[in-house]
Amino acid sequence: MKRRSANRLFLALSWVGLVVIAGLPFGGWLRWMTMPDRDLDLLVYDSTVFESDRRQHNGVGLMMKYLKVPFDNATDYVGSSPGGRPFGTWPAERPDLVMLVDAYGVYVNDQADLDPNGEVRITPSFPRSHALDVIRWADEGSVIMGEFNMMHEPTDPATSELLQGVFGIDATGWTGRAYQDLQEVTPVVQRLHPGTWDYGGPGIVLVGSTVGDRAIDPGLVVLLPEHLNALAPRVLSDEDPEYPDIALNSWFALIEADSAADTTLWINLPVNDRGAALLEAKGIALRSPFLVWNDNTVYAAGSLASTPAAFPARRIVGALPVMERLFAAGDAAMFYRVFAPLVERLVTMAEQEQVEE
Fold first, then answer.
1. pLDDT for residue 311
2. Fewer CB atoms near the end CB (10 Å): N or C, the chain?
3. How many domains does the chain have?
4. Is this structure's pTM higher than 0.85?
């Protein structure tokens, strides 16, 4: 008899649990349905659009849909269209929110085919006139976000310095990426390595190049498993001891932040003593700011806007508050724990600036 009662209790609790889990997305959707539409003027700049998925800013489209900010991922941006042709019109009026996503551009190979690893750029560089507009807009109250591909080549040094000033950072000239297989490293990067590129398996590659007024000799540091405690850099918080350990698997920049800036997240290069010796020889710090705030600007030292969103947020847009809690780690953590809260904060800031005007 006791056994039957225990089984019934277990089944009842199981059904309750299933109902709660199934209801969480619906609750998120209901919350989204009751949210008001937002009247914000948004500018997204992305000059690196190879394919129709516009992956460099597809995360922006999802977040703006969730936050009910008018934005069409396919048409409401400035930069390049799929294939590299110029796209959109730089605004004459000051936007409320500016997201400078990517200025790397579109490249072709020797056969004139679109190729992210090509060496011939077919899109124009981010112009100095745009950078001057961004400075003026920031002074006038626009909320500005920038990512690392805005500062580095092919952005010219003078324009890079202007942008670094907007965000209160100094670029060190070092960028990097973790690879599951070092054979996937692009030929452009491989040629910086003296001798034959015979690396394989996982590792982290750091690339040194001149950026802004900081001139450094082109260089390369290859961190292999014997140099590492983990196979990818980690994004960490000094303020929240319970912040999840998030792997950084896309390109990132190593920077320095002005003393007045508020750095809320950091990149940690997970090296052991052997790896630390390699970095010290190149003057590379083991930690670098990842998210840097200055009044109404924020700089992300990585490619956040291209971070993919996992199911079910693509289909159940209102479920985002639930997903932020479920995806505390893993491949989707960068979107749900870093990018999504960042964009929510930016939109809130832009609305507050509107009220204060």
1. 47
2. N
3. 1
4. yes
